[in-house]
Write a structure and sequence with these properties.
This protein has 65 residues and is of the alpha+beta class. The protein has one domain: Aminopeptidase (3-Layer(aba) Sandwich). 28% of the residues lie in helices and 32% in strands. The chain is built from 2 helices and 4 strands; from the N terminus they run βββαβα. Strands 1-2-3-4 form a 4-stranded mixed sheet, covered by helices on one side. Strand 2 and strand 3 form a beta hairpin. The longest helix has 14 residues. It is globular, with a radius of gyration of 12 Å.
Length: 65
């Protein structure tokens, strides 16, 4: 979970080598928080696994490409 002061603004879930449930509050989008969480998730997974699997909805596909 990512906080701005004490306010939660974004989250990502890591389950083994799966990345899912990446959310950023609308007013904090387009500021690099989602990318920071995705980078964190990938680095965390790379310590134990050779690949990461991203679970995302089809409408969000463009974000990850």
């Amino acid at each position: 979970m990512l906080f701005d002061n004490e306010k939660p603004i974004a989250t990502v879930t890591i389950n083994e080598n799966h990345i899912n449930r990446l959310f950023v509050l609308e007013e904090y989008q387009h500021k690099g928080y989602g990318k920071a969480l995705l980078d964190f998730a990938e680095k965390s997974i790379s310590v134990r696994y050779s690949e990461a699997i991203l679970d995302a909805s089809l409408p969000a596909k463009h974000i990850y490409l």
